[in-house]
Structure formats: structure tokens, C-alpha cells
Amino acid sequence: MKIATAAYPLDWLDSWAQYEDKLAAWVSEAAGHGAELLVFPEYGAMELSTLDGAAVAGDLERSIQAVSDWMQDAQALHTRLAQEYGVYILGASAPVVDGPGRPVNRAAFYAPDGAQDHQDKQIMTRFERDPWGIAPGGPLKLFDTALGKIGVLICYDSEFPLLGRALQEADLILVPSCTEALSGYWRVRIGAMSRALENQCVTVMASLVGNNDWSEAVDMNTGMGGIFGPPDIGFPQTGVLAEGVLNQPGWTYAEVDPAAIAHVRADGRVLNRTHWAEQKPRANSVTMCPL
């Protein structure tokens, strides 16, 4: 399969038609390069707040609510594009009000047959807790697709091994991210690469890029697209199948062979995924040794 992962810049939008044109151009470009799975980044939907004007886009709480209000229309657009181009799309995540509590950080997943589902972020960063007030959402899911089993760990979630282990059956783990500084980008990238090593799978990282002085929420963003596997048989020795150019908008592409994932899990030079359970008794028997 061919995967496209985005380094995605936000734009000021003067009309819904402008957003439709932008998203259609991105999807058309990736599909034109033969991509079957397209991955957009965390909080890429925040540009929708500009449709309600500068006062809303520049106010944290009002922009969160505005984006949530636009998501039904955004979902219809993504569904149509996934069907039109025959691709799977992990849409850019958004704060979504789903019930009486605080918004969750939700990434919707669209199939070429019109089906859709979503994955909510599990563990909030410090800024999401305060001042954003974003709440943890529903449970982790494993999507069974024609491309294989696919899981999603949104940004900070990728830095937690037990969340990755919960998706041990996934062939692909998608990691949409939004990071302000280079250090944040590398934390998520190291997390994504670590999950690929532990689960002997492929991880796909998408990044928000560029600065937006109109937003209190996503004003500075650093990153690039990247696709990673275990540094073992059938994969590059670095584990890096593809990476973009830092802060340069656009798609990063990689060909992924599902058979290579199955092979490295069954007969790799190491078997991290199989040997995972051997940690527990040894981790529970640490001996204190005074020197």
C-alpha cells in the first residue's frame, strides 16, 4: 500500500468554499500519487474557527466551540472526498463537544465506501488540561480495514507504551500531532518510532506546521511528516521509511508491504512484540543494591 502523511499548514479562511477547495486539492494530490491512506495532523481543523471571524478565532474558548460547530459539515466533506477518490482518510483532529462535559480531541476516520468512525485522544497534555480544558474521550479502537488493522494514537498518546501495547494487533498506528517546538516534535517522533519497535509495526506521523498570529490555540507549530517501521528485516536499518523536510508543507509518501510486517513479527532478528510479557516478572523484582 502507499501512504501519504501531511505536514499541514493552517490558512485563514474567508468562506466555506475556500476550505472545500483546499481540502479537495490536498486529497487530489495524494490520491494522484497513488496513496491509499491519507493522514492529517492533530488540531488541523482549528482553521475552521476563522470562518467565524477574527474575534472568535483569536479567543481560545470561542474558537474551540466554533470548530466543534463546523465538524458536521467537515465530516460530510471528508466522507465525500474519501468516496470520490477511493481512499482512507484520517481527518485532522478537532475539539468536539460530545455531551454535557468539556470537548474531546477527536480524529475522524473515513473509508472509501462511505463508512466513518473516530478516535479520541486518551491523555491530555498540560496545555490541553489548562487552559484549553479538553477532556479525555472514548476508548482506544482498532479499525479493521482493507489495508489491514489500523490504530490511532493522537500526539501525546504515542509517548505511552501501554497505549501502544493495547494496539498490538495493529499493522499501522497513525500518529497525528501538533507540537509547538522542535523538542515537542521529537518527543512525539521518538514515541512513534518506539511504538513501531515494540509492536513491530508501521507508525505514521503527521504534523501541523507554520505560525498563525490569528490564533491563541495553534499560533506556533513545528514538525514534518514521517513513516517509521522496526529497524529489522524488510525495513530500513534506521527504521525510517520516509520523512519530510522540517516545517515544509506537503505530503510525505512511503510504500508499505503488509507482508513485511507479518514477516518481521514472525521471524525478525528480534521479537519485541512476542517477548513483551517477559518484562513483567523482571520489572516486579527490582533489587536495591547499596554501593
Helices and strands, with pairings:
Layout: E1 2-9, H1 16-32, E2 37-39, H2 54-57, H3 60-85, E3 88-90, E4 94-96, E5 104-110, E6 116-120, H4 126-132, E7 142-145, E8 148-152, H5 161-166, E9 172-177, H6 182-199, E10 202-209, E11 226-228, E12 240-243, E13 250-255, H7 258-267, H8 272-275, H9 279-283
Helix pairs in contact: 1-3
What does it look like?
The protein is 33% helix and 22% strand. Strands 1, 2, 3, 4, 5, 6, 7, 8, 9, 10, 11, 12 and 13 form a 13-stranded mixed beta sheet that branches. The chain has one domain: Nitrilase/N-carbamoyl-D-aminoacid amidohydrolase, CATH 3.60.110.10. It is built from 9 helices and 13 strands. The model has no long low-confidence stretch (mean pLDDT 97). It has 291 residues and is of the alpha/beta class. Strand 1, helix 1 and strand 2 form a beta-alpha-beta unit. Helix 1 crosses helix 3.
By DSSP, the count of extended strands is 13
Spell out the CATH superfamily.
Carbon-nitrogen hydrolase
- Category from helices, strands and their pairing: alpha/beta
Gyration radius from CA atoms, angstroms: 19 Å
In short:
With 291 residues, the protein is an alpha/beta fold.
Features:
291 residues; globular; alpha/beta; Nitrilase/N-carbamoyl-D-aminoacid amidohydrolase
